[in-house]
Design goal:
Number of domains: 1
CATH topology: Non-ribosomal Peptide Synthetase Peptidyl Carrier Protein, Chain A
Strand content: under 5%
Radius of gyration: 11 Å
Number of helices: 4
Number of strands: 0
Largest sheet: none
Structural class: mainly alpha
Helix content: 55-70%
């Protein structure tokens, strides 16, 4: 993943494949908890998946502030130094 567009695309695929979400529901502005109906366990699973994809662990305090898919993309980009 070399840029935010690739990160978004990868995360969208993960959300579709791993969380059984509909592609049309997934937008950068989608709220993880309200629009996508993820719960706290799903958020942990997503953080684990991001660690698998990047090889880097997300700071739990930083991940607590994540609300939208764009927040996840930005957090992931920061992990990767983009």
């Amino acid at each position: 993943m070399e840029n935010k567009e690739q990160i978004y695309s990868t995360l969208k695929t993960v959300l579709i494949d791993e969380f059984d979400l509909d592609a049309e529901d997934i937008t950068p502005q989608a709220s993880l908890f309200e629009d996508l109906d993820l719960d706290s366990i799903d958020a942990v699973d997503l953080a684990v998946k991001i660690r698998e994809l990047t090889g880097k662990k997300i700071d739990p305090e930083q991940f607590k502030s994540v609300r939208t898919l764009q927040d996840v993309v930005d957090c992931t980009a920061e992990l990767l130094g983009l």
